[in-house]
Amino acid sequence: MRNLVAVLIFSAMVLPCSGRTILKSEPLVLGPYEVAFVQDASCPAGQVLKVTGAIRGLHRKRACVVLSSEQASLAVATP
């Protein structure tokens, strides 16, 4: 019984982290070191824009990265 509970707790923690959400627009608010993936025309085909939040006074980091289709799901950003 203890093993079953351990497996359920572990799967509850792992499953939400397994997929990455790709937004259609860059979020207005992004916490320091928080990462958002954006489907943007600024990156070549097959790549998405990876935006990393920064601490106050610094600019966000933006880079084009490749994500496999198993890692990503398309979603809509809510400002």
Give the beta-strand count.
5
CA(first)-CA(last) distance: 44 Å
Q: What does the largest sheet look like?
A: 5 strands, mixed
Helix and strand sequence:
HEEEEE
Mean pLDDT: 78
**Ranges with pLDDT <50 over ≥5 residues?**
14-18
Task: Walk across the major sheet and give the strand order.
Answer: 4-3-2-1-5
Task: Estimate what percentage of residues fall within beta strands.
Answer: 25-35%
Fraction of residues in helices? 10-25%
In terms of structural class, how would the helical and strand content be classed? alpha/beta
- Tertiary shape: flat
In brief:
This protein is α/β, with parallel strands linked by helices and 79 residues long. It has one helix and five strands; from the N terminus they run H-E-E-E-E-E. The chain is 22% helix and 29% strand.
